[in-house]
Structures are given as structure tokens and as C-alpha cells.
Amino acid sequence: MTAENVLRALDAVSAGRAEDAVLSVRDLSVRFRLRGGRTVEAVSDADFDLGAGECLALVGESGCGKSVLASALLGLLPGNAETSGTALLADPDGAAQTDLIAADEKTLARTVRGRRVGLVPQSPAAHLTPVRTVRSQLEETVRALTGTSRRARRKAAEDAAERAAFPAGHLDRYPHELSGGLAQRAATALALIGDARLLLADEPTTGLDRDLVDRTVDELRRHADDGRALLLITHDLAAAARIADRVAVMYAGRIVEIAPAHRFFGPAGPRHPYARGLLDALPDRAFTPIPGMPPELSALPEGCAFAPRCPLATELCSNRPEFTANLACHHPEHPRA
Amino acid sequence: MLELDTVTAGYDRRAPVFRGASLTVAPGESVGLLGPSGCGKSTLARVAALLHRPDAGRFVLDGTEVTAWRHRAPRELRTAVGVVFQQPRTAADPRLTLADLLVEPLRATGRRAEAAARLAELAPAVGLTPDLLGRRAHEVSDGQLQRACLGRALALRPRWLICDEMTAMLDASTTAALVAAVETYREETGAGLLAVGHDRVLLRRWCDRTVEWKDCLPAEEGP
Amino acid sequence: MADPRTHRLRLWSSALVVGVVLLAVLVVPPLVQLDEQAVDLSRKLLPPSWEHPFGTDDLGRDLLLRCVYGLRISLLVGLVAALVATVVGTAVGAAAGALGGWTDRTLMRLVDTFSSVPHLLLGIFVVALFRPGVWPVIASVAVTHWLSTARIVRSEVLSLRTRPFVEAAISGGATRWRVAVRHLLPAVLPQAGLAAVLMVPHAMWHESALSFLGLGLPSHQASLGNLVQNARSSLLAGYGWPTLFPGLLLIVPTLALAGLAGVWRDRLNPRRRSELML
Fold first, then answer.
1. Which candidate, A10, A151, A204, B171, has a CA 20 to 30 Å from the CA of B157?
2. In whole angstroms, what is the distance from residue C176 CA to residue C182 CA?
3. The ABC transporter domain covers which part of the protein (chain A) (predicted)?
């Protein structure tokens, strides 16, 4: 068995949860039509599964389309977006599935958002209503989701706060009276109220300092360990390294590699040159940037979008590489020895 | 020499953000100031960039004490310090193109004639391609905009550079590229650097020495 | 933002009304060369007909013609007054916001003082100082209307003043004047322009109110306010159209202007561009 085959086998084990996937995304594309006939291809042919208890980190530079992917899963895209493909969300009883892309706004609002998909937002300070206490916001969400009695609401709000490790003593505070970390937990508590099996965390650590990043992602990891599926969207590779089971690398709207985290961050490393470049840019590694800048999503090259910046590019790269075996590259790096 | 000597500063005299902070940066030296968010290190950066007047203590820049000023610190001292902020979106005037943004300091100081030549040097130095220069802030990504903000800070060839969480919003590759651009500039000009941030790994790798902000005061620490 | 179709409907209907009004007041008077003051007592108080689409008034003057002339003078007063008020308000607001300190305190106390007097009373006081005419009315409207613009511009400038992009400009050697002219003023001009457009209807109403009270334009001059005022006696005698048409002309074009201003406001606050819209 060659090293490559071993890797394939290992990857297959990590990805072998497709049948019990909470979320199953197939050929998901999102396009925006702009004035003047320009088209922005924000997400192209995204393809991945996410199982219960698993954390998939979606990493990439800002503007690569990762947040669009999250918005698409929540049905929160602006009106000029065109979507195709499917994103099947398993029902709690496991029998049927809901296609998040095809579902209408009513279904999404009444049965999906908050109930089956929770969103941990990018900036909790902006996510919380500044003029109301954390408790009243939690209770309002409980009422909107379940419509239970006042007492049950209070209990549910406190339970959600506890699950998010938000101290009960701070429930009656206003968002501006909270530290960044507590505000983040309050926002997480909101996301957890509906006991959603799928959590989407969209850049939950931007602008936080390292200790707080570690604490925040550790808490998110705990929710995955409780059996939830966690999609962590981030540009912070250290955060991804800390908690992810698998890493999906996005470049110019396409997922170019999905790899188990231990291999991705371990000595073997990723196989796509872009992913290797990203890791090499880390200050505790080579600290060398990838030359050039990512292409415009409105003017993507014909072939591989990374080719203009890629040290390994050849003529072959003027054809777009297919995403097969969790990789889209004509010249994948062989695992490092 | 950039010297803060027992400086107290804040937005309310009765409750300053920090008291008695001291910090020095030698010419050509790079110092990283580490600390958790909300500890006042950004206020210190603003004091060092002559944008905020300290309430007490001494701030000495290249031998000139600039502790007392009314509306603005003297222009020749202000322009000796370049500053880059955390959030490029709010740090860039949305009505200017990136090209205008880069050379705005030259125009503001009556050196309009040099603008075109300086732009031709600055844009490649911070990795901006000509097609980006004609765009406005909302038409480029955070990383591209931050490159322009760095270029603007370097436009007047400052002797000092203050980077307040310059890369906190950016991905690894853009971070490395911006740090490389700063270091190239410092090698050419011998400028001193105060990099404020929370990323220990980054600042230790980037700077000659790091200072840890403890209990609202910077305490010296090894390299 | 409203859904795109109602949005478009609002834009086009408003634009259509404003276009027709502008065409009427700009093109009709020089083209038709008729005397809107021509009195013909044999044809007084005729109901609307083909010959006189808006009917005639109690002196037999053609009301359509008088309405066009009235609208023209009212619109002119409204526009000029709004322009003056906006320039004054923007200057005062920008100075107060950008300079701060005692300048700010003095100017804003001045604004408060002016605001504390009821607008119409202040307006009447101003026109009473002069002989009736167009300029006193414009002055009266301007004096009472620059206050809100000054407040809007000041608060806008204050919120901009602490933005990092202003600090970056200061760090880049910009003087206070340059910061104000290059960075602050361009940022508030769209808001000030919007305030100006929204002010035109107010100014027109103010003029009409003054004229209705007999304090505005000379009463023989056809302005919307004077037309309504002159038609009052006819209304009591049971003739509705002499008040109806000027009244409608006071309402419809001002609504259309407000509609256009609304579209402009939506343009100013577009949906926040997300990451992918780049």
C-alpha cells in the first residue's frame, strides 16, 4: 500500500458518516446578478456532508464565499441571489429530509431557523438588542419557538444560558454591560434555545483575543460533543485546528479540499497547494504569504482559480479540476514524509 | 526615540483607561504590545500616534515633548508617525478610490506634485494591482482595503509606524503579506514599529521584543 | 427597503408628477403668452369646462392659468427658500459639529432659541418687517427652516468625527479645514440634499399659509396660497372649484417631491453589502 492509498483510506474513514449525515450538501451554487449584467459566482458546486457530533471547519480568505454558503443554508440570501443544488437537512426522527435550498420562506421560518439550524453570529454585540436584557431576549426566543407558558419559558431560557455556559447571575444585564466573551455566550445561548441539531458558526471569533477565541471554540466543540453537527466558518486556522474534525478549504467560491483535521494540521499536511500556502503563511510556520491575491468572484478564470498564484501550475491547470476524492487539483502535493 | 513616560490617558478624567504607563521604542526597533481586548492598548496606540492627548505623564517623540496640545498635535510630528487601524472598513473614507486613499496624506500636506510618483511606489509595495486602484472601499475585500490603509500610513515615509490590531480581521496569507510589506519598508527606511495586538504567536514572530500588558500597564517581557 | 415593484411604482409616479409640474411651470407661461390677470366679469365663476378646464374665479380669470402661475411662484419660493435654508443649516451644523467646544455650544443654543418660537409666528414676524413681496417670504421660510438641517448635519458630523478614517486623515497631516471639506462635508451632503428636497413641500406650505393669512405675496399675485385665500368667499357662496384646484396643486406635487426624496433616501442607505457582493 502506498502512502497515498493509506491517506485515502484514512480520509474515507473520517468521511464515512454520509449515511447518518445531519446535513448533506450537493452541488450547491450561489450566484448574484448585479446591475450591468455582471454575475458573481459566490459559491460553486459545494459538496460535503456533516454528521452528528462532528465539527467541519470551512476555512478560506475573506471574500471567498464562505459566509454566502452559511446564508444560503439559512435561506437568508438577498433577492438577487440564484441558487442551485441541494442541502438536505435530516429531520429529527430521521425519516424525511428537508432541502434547505428548495424550502420556502414559511417552512424555513417556522420549522428550520432556530429550531433545527442554530446560528452563532459573527459579532454578538450587533446580534443582541441593545435595549433589552439577555433574559428577555432569551425568553422572547423561547416564546417564538415554542409558545410555552411563562414559567416554562423562564426555565427554558435559564437552561439555554446554562448550556452556553452563560452565568445565571448576568441574565438580567444589558448587552453593553457584558464582556466580549459573555456577549458571545449570550448569542450562543440564543442559538441553542431551539435545541437545533445543526449549528452554524459564522466567524464566531473575529476580533476576539486568543484566550477568548480558545474558550469560545472550546464551548462550540462541547456542543458538537453533545451530538450536534457544527459547521465552523472561519479564517482563523488556529481556531479550526483546535476543534475541527475535518477541514474544508474554500477558494474563490469552490471547496478545493476536504481533509481530516489531524492530517491537515499534522505533519502530512493538506494536499492542495492553496491549503499548503495558507498554512505556510501562519506566524508559527514559514510566515510567508501566498503571492498575489484571490481572483474576483465576478471574473473567475476558466480553469483552476488558484493557478495564477500556484507554484505548481502547468498547462493542465487551464482546465478546471474536478472535485473528486475530496480534492480539486491537477497537481496535488504528495503527503510530506 | 518614541517614549511614553508614566502616561495616563482616557476619555474621562476621573476614570482614565490606564495610569502611569511607560513604554519606549528605539529607532529601527519593533515592539509588540500584547494584551486582551478592552485593556486600553488601543488608547495607548492612539496616544503614540498623536491622536489622543494624554492627561498626565510625558510623551516624547524624537526628543520633542508633545504632551500638551489643544486641537491637534503639531503637523510635522503627526506626520512622522503612520498609523494603521484594525477595521479597514471604518478607517477608509468610502468616497475615495484606493488611489486617492493612498496619496491623500500627500495632498493634505501640499505635496500634490509627488503624488503620482509615490503612488507608483506604494501600490506595488503593499501588493495592490493597478485595476484595484480605481475602485472604492465597498468594491474591494477587507484584505485589499487594509493593504491600501497600510499604503496610506506609509505615504509620507513616517519614521514611526503604529499598527493597532492591523491583521485581526484578516486571513493568514494576507496577514503574512502585510507584515512582509511593513518589514520591507522598515528595512528601507529604518523606521521604528509599535505593533499592538492580542496574537502572541504573531507578535513574537514579527517584533524584536514584546511587551505584555498586565493590569492595565505594559510590563516588559523578553523577546 | 420596500419590495422592488412598489419601489419602482413610487419612483415613476413621483417622477411623472414632478415632470409634468416642471413642464407646466417652465414651458406654459412663456409659450401661451396669456395674461393670467385678465379680468372678464361676464365669465365669472364658470364651472370647469373645455374652455376653462379649472373653471374661472369671481373676477372671471382663468383658474388653470392662474394655478400654473401660482404653482410657479410657490415652487420658486419653495426651492429658493429650501436652498437658502439648507446652505445656512449645513454651514452652521458642520461648523458646530466639526469645531466643537464653545462654537458648538453657541451655535446650538442659537438653534434652540429659534426653535423655541413657533414657526409660523417667527415667519409672520419676519414678513411683517418688510413690504409684501417674494424676498421677505423667502427669508421668512428660510429663517424658520434651517434649524432642522443644522441639527441633522451636526449630529452626522459628530458621528463621523470619531471614525477612524477621520483620525487617519489627521494622522496623515490634514488640517481641520481639510478634514471638514474633504472628508466630513462630502459625507453629509447627501443627507443635507435629502433634507433640502423634503423641505421644499414644507416651504411651499409655509408660503401658502403666509399668503392665506394675507401676509405673504401681494394678493393680486397668483400664488397657491393667494388663490385659496381669494377663493374663500366663493367657497362660502357654494363654488368649490376655485379652492379645490389650488388645494390639489398644493398637495399632489409636494407628495411627489416627498416620494422622490424617499427613493433618494433608500439609495443612501442601501442594504449592507455582504462579503459576496464584492
1. B171
2. 10
3. 25-277
